[in-house]
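Rotation project, supervised by the postdoc (A.L.). Task for the rotation student: set up a whole-complex structure prediction and record inputs and outputs verbatim in this book. Inputs entered:
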Amino acid sequence: MAVYKRTYQPYQGPLTPAWSRFLVIARQAHRRVFDSRFLVFFFVLCFVWPAVCAALIYLRHNAGAIELFKINVARLIPIDGQFFFRFLGWQGSMAFLLTAFVGPGLISTDLRNNALPLYFCRPFSRAEYVLGKFAVIAMLLSLITWVPGLLLFGFEANLEGGAWFRDNLWLASGIFLGSWIWIVTLCLLALALSAWVKWKVLAGALLFGVFFAAAGFGTAVNAVMHTDYGNLINLPQLVRTIWAGLFGVRSTGGIPPDSAWTALAGICALCLYLLDRKVRAFEVVRS
Amino acid sequence: MDAKPVIELVGLEVCFGERTILKNLEGKFSGRAIGLLGPNGAGKSTLINTLMGFYPPAKGTARVFGHDIRTGIRSVRRLIGYMPENESFIAGMSAVEFIRFMAELAGLPPEAALERAHEALFYVGLGEARYRKLEEYSLGMKQLVKLAQAIAHGPQLLFLDEPTNGLDPPARQRMIRLIRDVRERGNLHLILCSHLLRDVEECCEEVLILKEGRIVQYSNLEEERRANRRFLELEIEGDGEAFAAAAKDLGCECALSAGRRLKTVLADGVEVRDLYRTAAQCGARIRRLSHKRDSLEDIFLKAMSNGNGGS
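Outputs recorded:
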């Protein structure tokens, strides 16, 4: 740098639009996520099942391959609601693991390093901060859930023709809506736990705890009380119940879809409340 | 003094629960560099944080460059840079990544933010260490990085909260030099919050003293010093009491101690040579005469002892 430039000069250039600034957080975080070889490997692994599904769809429509491998078409999985329900189930599990790796450090490290005042002393609100952190996970999860899901749907529609596309358009909306329900739930839960626990490892462990311990507890409640309402604290079961409604398959959870929607909305509202309490420039000790 | 006040406080009150931290603050402050002083718990940091919108006012409001903090906090934040007191950084980043990130959040396009990040780091003297991770920096370097992030986006008002905290004397001098340089070249205003009177004395033209959440003193340091130029300390040989009485007759305020040390405030129209003449007439001799200028410490202590909390 030229010596004559080593002085303080005010900035007078153009500014970026205010609405787009939350994406700065996402861009920066993604750069760091993909610095980790493990996460890159895992992210690639998340595309194995969509590739398998694409191969299945291809096989169903390739007469040469059917003849060559002597495949019984009737035994191949039909491309219907059940197919996409299973697809989303598997990808949803991968999305949970990806969230468990990426999510816990998003807010906790900022809190531990007192970084929040640095964000909020700029023209950048708390909502934009949360939205930016949300976008970090949501973009990654989108790439492994509804984006490949809709590509598979488009692939099948392309091979089957316009009539199939028109008859099954509701499946596309199911893929999109079902994915986003899961993405929003995972993101909010991961962010809320990250905001409440300053230690990244503990926040990650808590995320697993919320899913598996709560599911176990719910099952125990079901067994002891001879009811199905223990599933209301079983997050995977709640989401499966909602997905079952979206894809027109039979639900195994035993709880009505309305109750599942309500429970999930309650969990999301609780997460937003926790974020509102913790994502502040400074904590005020009221005495 | 600028026509538009930098900061305007209009009956500002801030409460944490039942406790009122800032009590009915009023005033308009237009200084280029304002020092914010006060004992621990006086409300200095709370005032800065309220001006940045971190704490909501319970009553009243404040304006920064005319923008109300209740209704236009985004406009306020567009104009400010903030160097926090505590160690604040984003883990896993190099200094240049950190400053660039902060500048982008302030609205600079990525290329401009990167350029400004390099410039700011060279400016604060961290040019050679700019690619090192922040976790590896010493405390002094972290302070400089905090200053760099506060100025990288070109603010008009800079809040510096204890900028020399934990610095050794050379590092402190460097920080003070930088702050003065930013003030001179940057065409910006700064508010420096510190418990070190020397820091404020070296960097600021005006001082705002808080005590128990109220403003007890707001003064221009230079004017305050000028006002005290007529305050003299004398060492007398001979009849000190007769000289003190004669000086009082001239209209000067006098206080004699140990029979030979005299503190006096010259009356209007009385010059130093009049004192020499009076001393000769009384048979006394002035052995030493010095102008006593109020230091910031004097101003601060006076404000603390006089301050009854009335703004």
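Student's summary: The two ends of chain A are 51 Å apart (CA to CA).
Supervisor addendum: The mean pLDDT of chain A is 91.
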